[in-house]
Amino acid sequence: MPDQKGPTRGAFLARAVDYFTARGITTERVITDNHWSYRRSADVAAVIAELPLVERKRVALQPHPCKPSGLPAVSHPQRSTMR
Question: Where in this protein does the record put region Disordered (predicted)?
Answer without folding.
Answer: 61-83
